[in-house]
Design goal:
The protein has 210 residues and is mainly alpha-helical. Helices cover 67% and strands 2% of the residues.
């Protein structure tokens, strides 16, 4: 039996990715969709500093699956499917572990380092963490490739823009709660998680080569 071939207009790399659905990424996106379909669940699942302080530790993870309106969900879940599909195929262990550990790391950073951050929701920080890791690893494997450094430069520029605007307005995304702002600190925490992961990988490679 021969495998079905992809249409000629689909690049071979994209066709290969489409033949290997990423289970962890799809599960995460599905969970976010289910939560979005039941808006009455938001209050009990959102990252809420007071709730976490009272022992509601599930919010450390579920808060990243809650979104402030359908536009917010479509952007975050859509980016997760694109980046996560690529990342889980190229770097399965980092991606699957990251979808569990990175939300907890980001939430812990917000809890301890941003005491004024009362609420948080969305997958944007996790998405950016996956994107930066993929870009950094891509650049490590091919230092002559311009695309991956460009991705990192765009990421840094976005963080600078968020800082300049004071996190207000949400850029092109319209939240259904006017009190919500872009959580630049969460995005920086995601970058910190990636730097730790890259550092651990470097130490492992140095140890293996010695």
């Amino acid at each position: 039996m021969t495998q079905p071939t992809a249409p000629a207009f689909i690049p071979p790399e994209i066709a290969r990715l489409l033949r290997h659905p990423p289970p962890a990424t799809l599960l995460c996106a599905l969970a976010a969709l289910i939560i979005q379909l039941f808006p009455e669940w938001r209050a009990g699942l959102l990252y809420d500093r007071a709730g976490v302080a009272d022992g509601e530790f599930w919010r450390i993870w579920t808060g990243h699956l809650v979104h402030f309106g359908w536009p917010h969900f479509v952007v975050d879940a859509g980016l997760l499917l694109i980046v996560g599909w690529f990342a889980e195929n190229r770097h399965p262990w980092f991606t699957r572990a990251g979808l569990v550990l990175m939300p907890a790391f980001i939430s812990a950073c917000m809890f301890w380092l941003e005491p004024d951050m009362a609420r948080y929701g969305g997958l944007s920080a996790v998405n950016l963490g996956l994107l930066v890791y993929v870009a950094a690893e891509g650049w490590r494997h091919d230092r002559t490739e311009w695309f991956w450094p460009a991705v990192i430069v765009i990421y840094v520029a976005e963080l600078a823009y968020e800082y300049y605007r004071g996190g207000q307005g949400g850029g092109a995304i319209r939240f259904d709660d006017p009190g919500i702002r872009v959580a630049t600190g969460a995005h920086l925490a995601a970058a910190g998680y990636v730097l730790l992961a890259l550092g651990a990988g470097l130490l492992r490679r140095l140890k293996a080569s010695s």
